[in-house]
Amino acid sequence: MPQGSINLTPIESTGSERKQQSQATQGVDKVNLSELNGGDEGSTSDLLYGVEDIPPVPVTIVFAIQVAVINVSFCVTMAVLIAGVLCADAETKTKLTSTTLLMAGIATILQTTFGVRLPIFQGPNAVFLVPILNMANFPEWQCPSNATLGTGYFNESGLSGVDGVEILSTSTRIQRFEGSLLVASAVHITLGASGLVGYVSHFIGPLTVAPTIALIGVVIIDSAIDLSSTHWGISIFTMLVVVLMTSYLEHVKVPLPAWTRDKGCHVSPYPVFHVYALCGAVLLGWLLSLLLTVTGMLTDNKDSPQFRARTDARLDAISSANWFYFPYPGRFGGPSFSLNIFVGMVLCVFMSIIESVGDYITASRICGVPMPPTHAINRGLLVEGICSLISGVLGASHATTSYSGMISVIGLTKVGSRLVFQLGGFCVILLAIVGKFSAVFVSIPDPVFGGLTIASIATLTGVGIASLNTVNLSLSRNYVTLGFSLILGILLPRWVQDHPSDIDTGSVEVDRFLVALIGNSPFVGGFVGFFLDLTLPGKRSTFQDIHQEKTQKESIVSSEKFAVYNLPWLPSRWFAGKWARFVPIVPSFYDNEIYPIQQIE
């Protein structure tokens, strides 16, 4: 064995062999893994089922259904927000929802099997809502009134003149999102396959990430207000249910039947309220809307905005929906390209990559495995790019990347089995192709979605601010950077929105490009934070020190722990050649059983 190399268990080794080697090095593994994850006591996994564990069939099915149910609410909420910009009717909303759920399931299976291979659920990324919602500021993207929709001025054949302004049809809007997303996804794929992310990450720190994530809510808030304004009472009630179940009842556990390998069948306390907060908020908000509808406290005038708060406002969507719907390419026509949308989506690609890398590291800590090596991160980003490309082909109008909200659920359920998430993705696919099921979610009253959106914005903003926990905010360079990035991230997009004609370069296309660029709040805030953090004197707050410490300690961690990131079903000898050292998505091998851990440089 060459000096300094690490003895790894081959991919094709049996489970019993891995178990024997694990027992032989158990004490060393735990100590070194804790060091690798930052020295936190809580970083050592106490999960009932680890990443590579296979729970009993009944347990796997129950937890897989739980994973699917928890994420359906988030996917449907994102689909409804996008459908609002598209001016979609109930039938189109149902199809968009089915496509969103289908891609969430497919992406989850691909990511957990071939990507980073950690238990991370995939779904529509809220970052990509920014360029979508920003398009509503342009006159041709304004939605016509319900009366106009009914008179045929807004049709599927193309542009229609309304009050002298040509308004884009729903199919045309989807086509433009499709084409722009396809090109932006190609950039995403290139970044993942080339391994550039490991290099770029050295220049990005918390003062760039925090304003980028926190300012996403600035863009989404207008849509949340529009949904909530149909009935603020129902919206606030739904929002308060989320706060109650996630915070006040977070530690309240309900005795439920359970099964473990040690105790068998028994009664165990379970944090039902915290785990099922979103589902519970939807059901209770829906129930309140039903009560107000039955008692006649909500208007039955279809021209009134309050009508959208009724539970029977979209019942026709359920009756008209097909029992089964299979999304397919070209459903809304061929893709077309829009420079404005493309610019916004490319910016979102970079922001989503930052978020995804953070999700990978967080998931590894919760699951008690080493931080992902470079090849696993690159492969995860590559899979996200491919899945976003497929989303564009199917007309989802959004990218499909990692869903941060599901990672905390792993710690609550104590289940991090890869198999559970793969089966959960399959359950979501089944729900997607049942058209009636998607139609039921589309019929949820608008103020319920409004309350959920407000709660999501608050949580997302908190996550962004929490990323500053390693930054010394007593230093003037740091609080000046943070303050200016947040203020300019709000001020400049608001100015562009109120005075778009002030940008006049003599070229309409250039003007719209600049409006789309400056009107993107997360990009403006992140760019200002990045520039000031890079140029102001003093010690920068970057993730580089973390990466350097990580690479110094990787060599003493049990090599078997890193096997969780290896590609499945492929013999290790396939990567024994020197060529593998130059392929960013596969581990670098010396021979068929010995290779050094690839490090982030």
Report what the structure shows.
The protein has one domain. It has helices spanning 15-24, 26-36, 57-85, 90-114, 129-134, 146-150, 170-194, 196-200, 206-214, 216-228, 232-248, 272-275, 277-294, 315-320, 339-367, 374-394, 407-413, 418-433, 435-442, 446-466, 476-498, 508-518, 521-535, 544-554, 559-562; strands at 122-124, 160-162, 165-167, 254-260, 264-270, 400-402. The protein is globular. Residues 1-44, 147-162, 546-557 and 589-601 have low confidence and may be disordered. By secondary structure, the chain is mostly helical. It contains 25 helices and 6 strands. The strands form 3 sheets. A two-stranded antiparallel sheet has the order 1-6. Helix 9 (206-214) runs antiparallel to helix 20 and helix 11 (232-248) crosses helix 20 (446-466). Helix content is 58%, strand content 4%.
Helix content range of the residues, please?
Answer: 55-70%
How many strands, what sense, and barrel or not for the largest sheet? 2 strands, antiparallel
- Termini distance? 25 Å
Q: Strands of the biggest beta sheet: in what spatial order?
A: 1-6
Number of strands: 6
Beta-strand proportion: under 5%
Q: Return Rg in Å.
A: 25 Å
The structural domain count equals 1
Uncertain ranges: 1-44, 147-162, 546-557, 589-601
| Integer average pLDDT | 76
**Can you tell me the overall shape?**
globular
The number of distinct helices, counting runs of at least 4 residues, comes to 25
The structural class is mainly alpha
Features:
two-stranded antiparallel ribbon, disordered C terminus, 25 helices, 601 residues, mainly alpha
